[in-house]
């Protein structure tokens, strides 16, 4: 048997087995393959977290032995007809806790299948994982401790298989015996969990992967240019200052005042939007536009949690639109109401999120949780360089990846839509480097409050 547990489980799903499963769940073979590719490491991670807790090694060996003894391999296509199916469903619900629905949604969205099929494939993956572990333990006559020690050696392989499009790294998969199991499924990186203290005026204040700048109230003079010997440090400050602009998107949203509280006196519906100039700095070295989100504010959500964001940030604008009745969804003109993410970026030519993007996606998810009836649509955009068909494809993939990130943070897939628009609806001149950087973006539009 292969020593890589992920590959060993995948080895169970031959083309013939995939074909039979696809017929049973009424989904394409490609969709089934993608779903299993995502479900297998998710099951392994969930088991790993449970196994690290009190009584975990015993539980792991008992479940593995039971699955292997039940000879589930031939029954994968029709697992629901076996006695193990209900036990597997109960196991995964216990492992995932409140994150169970989100886990199924993650599998469904990345493989473009129905959630009901996603649930079936998740349980098939769980049966395969435990059967493989049981087979390995039986063939090698492993004790609880020996199986657990071997299982620990698989952490890197499991982590590498976990949603590679989400840029997850092995270092993020660490020993967490005291962590709630569902936290693994819906949690954000540890660096994002720490909220900085309020910034003093006149300094850069790092926030997760980004930063905001609070100017001195008596002056608006720009900061002096850095000395040449500190060029790399200045580039790092610019990169950390991620904040994406004010209003551009399909159409401008009504100009947002400086604080969330100021929206109590927002202009009445129908008041023309006030144009604003894009504020920020183009980073030539990274070919990225770093946006200024304005004066830092503390945004307090309904559940009592706080976010430190800019007054013109995506978080504040989205929260205000959802909370203020003066702002209504335009169901006729669907080009209106788009808000750009101001700290979400992708690797060049790919649909892979950069690490600093995770904080804003987490923040937006928390805002959406405060408005459980809200439904949003994500739009992906590119500049006009390259092949138009490929641009449309990558914009769709990026919008999907951003949606998946929100699902990972606990937003049900049923509340999300996504679409790629390629180079359509550009907001800046595509003939300049700065303009093209502005045109490469992800936007969000509320379609139901």
TrEMBL record:
The keyword Membrane applies. It is found in: Cell outer membrane. Gene3D superfamilies: OmpA-like domain. It comes from the Bacteria. Residues 333-449 form the OmpA-like domain. Keywords: Cell outer membrane, Membrane. InterPro entries: Bact_OuterMem_StrucFunc, DUF937, OMP_bac, OmpA-like, OmpA-like_sf. This is OmpA family protein. It comes from Hymenobacter volaticus.
